[in-house]
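Q: Could you write out the predicted structure for this multi-component system? I'm mainly interested in how the pieces pack against one another.
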Amino acid sequence: MRILIVEDDEETRGFIAKGLEQAGHSVAAGSDGREGLFLATGGGFDVLVVDRMLPWLDGLSLVKALRAAGDATPVLMLTAMGGISDRVDGLESGADDYLVKPFAFSELAARINALGRRPAARVETHQLIVGDIVLDLHRRTVERAGMRVTLQPREFALLAELMRNPRRVMTRTMLLERVWDFDFDPKTNIVDTHLSRLRSKLNAGFAEDAIETVRGAGYMMRGG
Amino acid sequence: MKPGKLWRTTSGLVTLVALVFALVTVAIGAIAYEVTHEALEEQLDHRITTETAALLAEAHSGGLPAIGAAIRRREASRSTERLEYLLADDGGRIAAGTMRARLPSRAGFEELLEYRRSPGGSVRIAQALTTRVRGGTLVVGADRADLDAIDRRLLILFSGALAGMLLVGIAAAVLIGWMTRLRLEGIDATAQAIIGGDLSRRVPRDGSDSEFDRLAGTLNRMLDRIEGLMESLRQVSSDVAHDLRTPLTRLCSSLERAAGEADPAARADQIENARGQAAELLEIFTALLRIAEVEGFADRLPLHSLDLSALVEQMAESYRPDIEDSGRHLDTRIEPGLAVVGDRRLLSQAAANLLDNCLRHTPEGTAIMLRAKASPRGIVLSILDDGPGIPQEDRTRIFQRFARSERARSTPGHGLGLALVQAIVSAHGGHVLLEDGEGFHLRIELPPAS
């Protein structure tokens, strides 16, 4: 993927750029808001990583300007502001995801992957199919190779989120945000517990594990 | 003070009002004087006209001599409300009457006719009616002395009222200005003391419920709020200073040990250790910031009406696997359809903190009970367990930041969970109460959505 990083802190910028390049992405970088906007309007990027507080033009205004110009490139906003309303402001400006500093690189990489190569228009179908698993959002049923699997509501929501992003790592934080709507990290690791229950129900009678655990990062739905 | 801004001071305003009142008094006085004066003149005119008519009636029977006789009769009777008469023949000789005046050249009323009561007497002024009769001229007049006296008295009365009004007005201006300044000086002195650094000072109140008293009350409430926020800030600063020192020291020593470690595997272990400690520090920071945010911006939280029953049910469902896997039991008794106005994520976080607590601070086999119901005191959310509960000596401070009971020292945590629960519940206008009993029993009261 071609990724643009707009970040004024040199060390952070270098750390992100190096990590993404090592992961096989092509990276361009800007150090202030104006340069960032100039580079972004040049186009050709799959994902923009924009810091919220930038010299000359802040991240919120940068994203607003891009969106006003009709540019729909996915934006991941980085910020040191993790307040209750900061997140809402960030997403309302047109950013697609919001990551509070400091973060683990694996978290950033997972979120960039989830944003990139999104289907152009996300048409919400009522059936999700990954490999031999079929999930029906209307009837709220799950079948694996034609066998009915009975899930609890949270387990169902968890599987649906994983199946919407097949072959992409979903971190615990992403799952907490999207499945539980939490903007905090509970002390009890409810994601792992739910996932292990989901996994044992889904894998009962099958040799292959449908969900892969990515060490130090999160979980990923295996494609068939 | 600029002269143009006179009305901005209380004394100036009262003076202006007094001046306006004085002007209105002058205007009303002038009108009353004029109306009274005219009425009295008309009354005199009427008397003169009636008298002239009566005398002319005499002239029908006996001519000039008969009128003369009638005048002499009247003058002899010496009534208190006497009129002045002058009857002259065509030659200008006086036929009757004591009035001595120049004969008016024209018939009709004359407002100010100078006359004397006797030759050589003092000059007086009369209002007079001159009538031509056959063979002569009749003048009937009324002395204006009484009318002038009444006019004078009216003028004195009105000037007196005006002077009194101005005096009272000025006195009131001075007095009200002085009293206002006195009241404001109290507020000013308090404000000066607070600027000087004494945040505990309050504006004195007199309990009169006057506008000044109410202003003092409002200012005091504002000061309470500011002091609370300052206290909260001070608390957070000192908490950060004291309670972050230990984990920071541990982090530093982990890194030092890693630097001095020759074996790569052991070094990686030490670095992983340090990373864990950094993550823990970050967690403390996040919790402290969240508490401060919820406490400081309670009035500005975006609040929506939400189904608390569904939220609590969902939290119970989310925690049930962990609770059951750890050998504990979860029992819920949640009334459906309980609505509150609040922030979904914050309320979820409060519930998560409570469930985290029960999971971490109770032994295996503990039964945890989650209840939600409507009561006359609002919506009551209770969480209770049959675990060891909170020791008596810790009960009063469990909601403070970094408050951990001695028994909890061995378990992970920073003692920020319940502080955040209390901050969130307070921001929603509710209360958190620690109930007496064997185990842990926390009761949360939230106002219902109207």
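A: Regarding packing and overall arrangement: Residues 127-221 of chain A form a domain with the Arc Repressor Mutant, subunit A fold (CATH 1.10.10.10).
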